[in-house]
Design goal:
2 copies of one chain form a homodimer. Chain A is α+β, with helices and mostly antiparallel strands. Helices cover about 25% and strands about 20% of the residues of chain A. In chain A, a hairpin with a 5-residue loop joins strand 1 (about 30-35) and strand 2 (about 40). In chain A, helix 5 (about 180-190) runs parallel beside helix 6. The first copy, chain A, is globular, with a radius of gyration of 17 Å. Chain A starts with a helix and ends in a 10-residue tail after the last strand.
């Protein structure tokens, strides 16, 4: 549906513009804690407000599941699963790697029909519609074959990462930890890395559906797959309280590296 | 000296333009090995050629120590210490975080008088002249005070990193591994992180003077300091064969975290 694609790009443009117009004003912004314990900042609120403004102007055609607000039930068939800023800490630190993530579907990740992730520092945009392939700035993207000699892993680290995650960071020739799961999963989708892992300890629990809803469709449409930490195909309900660990891979042969 | 500042910005512009005009053509470029065992790619050559072209047009006012060529001795008083692309693997992977690094001085890091690092994906430019402070896009930058509750470390990882580096990645609330030492050190200089560490095993040995010559001045002019892995003040001769481990910090109190 061209209409849904247009709507998602319009929302991304509005977020991009809102964030750009306040650039540099985020460093001193107080970083608080969201309902789910994730740090939030002024930039998240600015971005989220921009999304709701576009939707309201169109009569709220989608329900909205977002990071900071209660589920917005407009009695529509489909839900927008929204992370207004994925990589808030990067934005606040002026590390130019943070994104807006927009997905449309029903119920769970298996029923996401559209996904869009835009890097708000560079403007680069990843997009997929179910069954129609994945694109970066209009060009088709595909995962790459795993080869040990050029292995590159993107791994969530720091003191909430599981010991296993730190082990993964020591395996390949190159490891990056970039701070935006949505974008890191899209880099795997585009063949720029072999794996993105978010594996936390039981107390802190993993990523949220808003972080991965768009990127999971983009990765699958590019030929990749996602797994939970038991090796099962990854899925999550549209529920902000759920957290789950995840391995996103381009070529499943990368998983052999862990055996 | 305004003249030297102008020359460095002119070189950065030339590199930026050369890299931008060939954007997207790097993914398929064969990545080989430089004289010192570091991977090189077409983008490095394109960037380096742009630098030499600007210098030649001005009668080669500086000797040049670069990543890929022999030392270019034009019998000048000062040397340009050049990394045409710091973060080649990122550029090839289309991770938007790679830079050109330009430093001018004599003999060793202690005698660098000017330093410029430009993020070639975003255009953001860090600059310092000795004794004159450090700047990002014309605005004065300063390191931040270390506070454990917002600690963010930037750590070089992968299978060439020392075990100690992987330990560091597990310590703070937030860890990033971004793939460009020059830029990561500048982020510490600008108060976006508390530490950047490059600690490799004895066999692979650490970073090269071209990676850190510009950023070391920028960090010191912003109020930070660099240490070697024995805790001594960091220095390196202008010699491409030397490799050394490094901790770059904003506030030395961060080092207490390791005790």
């Amino acid at each position: 549906m061209r209409a849904m694609r247009s709507l998602l790009f319009e929302i991304a443009d509005a977020v991009h513009e809102a964030v750009r117009s306040t650039e540099g004003a985020f460093e001193d912004a107080e970083v608080g804690m969201g309902a789910d314990g994730t740090p939030t900042a002024k930039i998240d609120r600015v971005a989220e407000d921009a999304v709701f403004k576009v939707l309201a102007a169109k009569g709220n055609p989608l329900n909205v599941l977002s990071e900071e607000r209660e589920f917005q039930d407009f009695k529509r068939a489909e839900t927008l699963v929204l992370d207004p800023i994925d990589g808030t800490a990067n934005a606040v630190s002026r590390i130019p790697f943070y994104s807006v993530s927009l997905a449309v579907g029903v119920r769970d990740l298996d029923n996401v029909r559209y996904g869009l992730v835009r890097n708000l520092a560079s403007g680069e945009t990843f997009y997929a519609a179910k069954g129609k392939g994945a694109y970066r700035d209009g060009e088709r993207i595909k995962v790459r074959d795993f080869r040990l000699d050029r292995a590159q892993f993107l791994v969530y680290l720091g003191n909430r990462a599981a010991r296993h995650a730190h082990g993964m960071a020591a395996m390949p020739r190159r490891t990056r930890s970039l701070g935006s799961t949505a974008l890191e999963t899209c880099i795997v989708a585009a063949g720029g890395a072999d794996l993105h892992a978010v594996v936390m300890g039981a107390a802190t629990g993993g990523l949220r559906v808003v972080d991965i809803a768009a990127a999971s469709l983009i990765l699958r449409e590019a030929g990749g797959e996602l797994y939970d930490d038991r090796g099962q195909r990854f899925n999550m309900p549209f529920d902000i309280r759920v957290r789950r660990n995840m391995l996103a891979v381009g070529d499943p042969r990368v998983l052999e590296a862990f055996k």
